[in-house]
Amino acid sequence: MTNRSIFLVGPMGAGKSTIGKLLAAELKLPFADSDKVLEDRTGADIPWIFDVEGEAGFRRRESEVLRDLCTGPTRVVATGGGIVLSPENRRQLRKNGLVIYLQASVDQLLERTSKNANRPLLQVADPRSRIIELVEERDPLYREVSDIVVDTDYCTPRQAALMVAERVAPGATGQ
Ligand SMILES: Nc1ncnc2c1ncn2[C@@H]1O[C@H](COP(=O)(O)OP(=O)(O)OP(=O)(O)O)[C@@H](O)[C@H]1O
Ligand SMILES: O=C(O)C1=C[C@@H](O)[C@@H](O)[C@H](O)C1
Ligand SMILES: [Mg+2]
Question: Does the beta carbon of 39 sit less than 6 angstroms from any atom of ligand 2?
Answer without folding.
Answer: no
